[in-house]
Amino acid sequence: MASPPPAPAMSFSDFPEDIQLNILSFLSPTEISAFACTSRRFAALCGGAAHESPLWLFMCERRWGFSTRLLSWSSSAAAGHRSPFARLYKALDRWEDLIGFWRRIGAGDPHLVFFEWGPSYIVGSRVAPSTEAARDGYGILKVPFLWLGLSSHGEPVSFLHPGCRLDSVADLLGAVSDSSISSSGFSYPDLVPVTVSFTGCNHFVLEENRGHDANARAESSNWVQKEVLRIEGTSPPDRLMSEIYQHFANRTSPLDGKATRKQRKKEKERFERRRRWHAEHFVKICNCYPTPERPLQGLWKGISEDRVLEFYLVAYDDIGGITCWRVGEAGGQFPGYSPVFWTSNTAFLESPFPREEEDLYGSREHIRSVASDWRSIKSEVVLRILRINSSHDLVIPSLSDSSSDPRNVDGRIWEYDDGTFGFGFLRNDYIIDLKHVTLNGSLLDTVELPSVQTLATNKSQSCESVDF
C-alpha cells in the first residue's frame, strides 16, 4: 500500500505574523535590514527603516522584557508621537552595559557605583559599607544619584543629583522635552543634566551636559555680529577686514577695551558658576557574581579584623590562581584596592576532613556584627576547604611586616553550604566570613540615610550631599 504523500513544507511566510516577528527579534538590526532586502513582502513586514514598525517592540521585549517595564518607558514618550521603540532599542542597547558595579577612578575617594533597572529608567547609586554595620549587621548604604531614561519626545536623557533620591522619576522624565534641556528647565532646579560617554564596554565618563549653554553662546554671537556691523558701517570696503581683525585681536581702545575685558570676565565667572559637576571616570568591576565553576568569584562583604564592614573582590586569574582584594581604599600602592591574599592552589579538600583541619576551624572566632544571630554560626556546614599557600606578603614583600614564619602567610578558605565562605590565616585566631552583596541583581541589606530628603515630597528643600 502506497504511503500518503508528504505534507508540503511550510515556508517562513506561512507562519502568523506575530510568530514571524518573534523569530526576527533574535536578529540584530543589521541582519534585519539585510533580510528586508530579500523581498517586498519582507520589507513591509520589517517596516523598512520605519520607526513605527512593531518589530522594534518585539526586539525590545526579547532583550529587556524580563528586566524592566518597556511600556512604562514609552508611555509618556509616545503621546502624540510615533512609537518610540526604535529609539528605546538604541538607548537600551547602549545603556545595557551600565548594569552592575563600577568603581570611580582618579582624584578623590574610589567609591563604588551600582547600576540597576528601574520600571521606566536605569538608576545609578553610590554604595558604601554602613558605618553602623559592625553593630547592626551587614548594611550597605545606597544613595541613588544618576538616572537615565526617555524624555517626552522619546529622546534619551540623563541627569543626576549628588546624594539625593527621586520617588517620581517617571513623572520627571515625562516633563523633559529633549536631551539638551537646561537645568533650569527641570522641575527640580538641583538636578544636573549629564552625558554618559563610553570608552569601550568597561569605561565611561560622566560629564555635565553643557548643551544648555547655547543661550549664552547665542548672546555672545549676537554681540559679535553687532560689533562687526558697527565697524562695517564706518569703514570703506578695502579696509573692512583689516579693521575687523585689528578690533578683535587688539581692542586697545580705552573705551571698548575696558568694557570688553569686563564682559569677558563676567562671562567666564558665570560659566564657572553654572558648572556644577566635573567629569568623573568609572571602570567596570567584571565578574561580580559567583558561578558553579568559580564559586568564590565576585564582590563580597565582610567585617574585617578592625570591626568595620569592607567590600572584598575575589577573582580567578588566567593561570588558575585566586586573588582577593579589599575594595574602596584610597591611597597606598594600589588606589582603590588593597591586596588580601593570593593562591595558586585551587584544589579543594573535600569532606570528611582530617582532625587537624577540624581543629583549625573550630578553634577560631567568627568576626560578626553585634546583631548577628550567633546560633547561625553553629549551624553553618563547611562543604570544602581550600588551603591558601601564599598571600600578598610573598607577592609584594614591601607590604609585609611579618617574619619568615610560613604560618604568617598560610591560611584557609572554608566554603559553606549556603554558597558563602570565610577565610583566615594561621597567624590569627579569627575567621572573616564573607556574605553576598547582591542577589538576583538587587543589593542586599540596604539602609537609608535619614538626612537625605526626598525631592518628590519636598521640592522646596535641596538634598544634602553625601560624603563618601
From TrEMBL:
Source species, domain of life: Eukaryota
InterPro entries the record matches: F-box-like_dom_sf, F-box_dom
Protein name: F-box domain-containing protein
Lineage, broadest ranks: Eukaryota, Viridiplantae, Streptophyta, Embryophyta, Tracheophyta
Pfam families in alphabetical order: F-box (PF00646)
Domain F-box: 9-59
Endpoints of the signal sequence: none
